Amino acid sequence: MKRQLNIAVSLSFALIIFSTHYLNAQPSCIGFKADFEFENDSTQGATLKFTNTSTWTDSNTHYLWYYGDNTQKLIEEESHTFPSNATYSVCLYIYKLNFADTVCRNTTCKTVVVNNTSSVAEEASATSVSIFPNPISISFSIIASPFNTLNYTITDIIGRIVQADLFTHQTSIDASAYENGIYFITIANDDKILHHQKIVKQ
Q1: Which residue, among 102, 37, 96, 14, has the nearest Cα to 63 in the 3D structure?
Q2: Cα(99)–Cα(106) distance, rounded to whole angstroms?
Q3: Phi-psi region of 181 (alpha: psi -120 to 50; beta: other; left: phi over 0)
């Protein structure tokens, strides 16, 4: 009888371990999607109201915003004031917890333009700048025309600078040492931002 009880306890424990690993490896996350909308929240042009429109979220869902200006916040939705008129890539990362393990995750990024006329544009980019290929594996190239000397800055998803340098018209960047994930590249002419884009290392 004692042996049967020990076997039953062992089987129960094994089932719990299996179930936990199964949930982590194959989460049922169909429809769990990060999304948001934004609009001007003041007449100053630098404050935007971000509204979370993610789907299939619940009380176990956590929200992490990356505003593209080296700030981030753990909050469902809010208004955010940007430091200056520029183009920013804003990302919302959502994840759902099962006990202490992340079982569902999703990210979406949108480009916003902040200027002193209080206008906002989505998915805007400078047509004079090309970055390819994207996603990247080993290296990627930047072509900018008709500008001469420019500078690029590459940051990771939490705003840490990974690489920065000057280039003239065209350059190739070695990304073989980058960890897989999402990065952002900003192309500028002196202090004027010309292009801001998300790149993915696979």
Answers
A1: 96
A2: 18
A3: left
Q: Give the phi and the psi of residue 166 in degrees, each rounded to 5.
A: -95, 155
Tokens representing residue 199 in the block: 């790149």
Q: Which residues pair with 165 in a beta bridge?
A: 152
| pTM passes above 0.85 | no
Residue 22 amino acid letter: Y
Report in angstroms the alpha-carbon separations of 166 from 38, 40, 176, 182.
33, 34, 20, 22
SS3 of the chain: helix, strand, coil, percent, to 5 = 10, 50, 35
Are 114 and 50 in contact, with CB atoms under 8 Å apart?
no
Q: What is the pLDDT of residues 21-55, one digit of tens each?
A: 333 433 467 788 888 888 776 555 678 888 898 98
Beta carbons of 115 and 47 less than 8 angstroms apart: no
CA distance 30 to 58: 14
